[in-house]
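Standup notes, structure subgroup. Blocker cleared on the magnesium ion input:
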Amino acid sequence: MKINSFDIDGVIYFGEGTTGVRPGKDDIIITGRPFTDREATVKMLESRGIYNTLYMNPLKRKIPDYRITHGQKDNPLYGRKASGIFKGQMINMLKDLGVEIQMHFEDDPIQIKEIQKRCPDVSIVHLKRDNEERVKY
Ligand SMILES: [Mg+2]
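Run returned:
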């Protein structure tokens, strides 16, 4: 079975009140958004009538800061490169499980590089925009 995969921000999502690219019936979504954002992300997708399987980044944006009680700091590992590594690994894991991704829709050149390194057989559809007015990388 060959399907396509879609990033969220800059592909499906361009902010409230704007429509983006929509995945097909059996396609999947692979986002760099952390798993801790699952509830809000599912809510946003469902409000657009999108119910596709959703795979989320296992890294958190914030991690505990033990210097401060109940403190948090930015996770130095979380970022665009890590998101690309995650997506490439996810695509390869799905392939090992018999789900082949034919095309991945992505807007971030940094992530595209990481996915291409790991998944040379996947065609990347690079969505380019002329500014970051609606959504940032
Ligand atoms: Mg994106």
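Discussed briefly. Helices lie at 38-47, 80-96, 109-118.
Next: hand off to the docking folks.
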